[in-house]
C-alpha cells in the first residue's frame, strides 16, 4: 500500500451519490498540492459534470480521473488541479519567475506570495485538452511534471470555492 503522503496530487473521499449535497459531490483533499486554495484534509464540494460535457475555463479548479496520472494506473482515483491553459493556448515558464500564457506573464492571485516556479518549455495545448497545475507549485505533480495536457472529457466535477 502506498502512503498517502507519497501521493501529494491525489484527492480522496469521493462520496457516493446518495451523500451528494444539493447535487454536489463532496471530496477531501489529503495533500498540500492545492494550498492555499484547498488545505490538507479540507472537505469541499464539486458540481458534477457529465462525461464529455465540461468546457474548460482558465482558473477553474477541477476534479478529474486520468489513468496516466493515477497511482494505481487505472484512473479511478479522483485528482484535483487548476485549469491554467485551454485548447489553443501556449503556456511556458518562466518570464521573471512567472508562468507565461500566450507570451504574457500570467496573473495568478490564487498562489501564495513568493511562489517559485520551475522552468518548463512552451507547450501548445491541443483541441479538447487543458493544462492543469496545482496551486502549491513546489509540491504538485501536474501537467508540468511529464504528464502533459489532460482531455477535458476527464473532468468529473468543478470545485465550488466559497
TrEMBL record:
Catalytic activity, as annotated: Cleavage of hydrophobic, N-terminal signal or leader sequences from secreted and periplasmic proteins
UniProtKB keywords: Hydrolase, Protease, Signal
Residue intervals of the Peptidase S26 domain: 24-160
Entry keyword annotation includes Magnesium: no
Any matching Pfam family: Peptidase_S26
Signal peptide segment: 1-19
Class of enzymatic activity (EC top level): hydrolase
The protein's name: Signal peptidase I
The species this protein was found in: Actinoallomurus oryzae
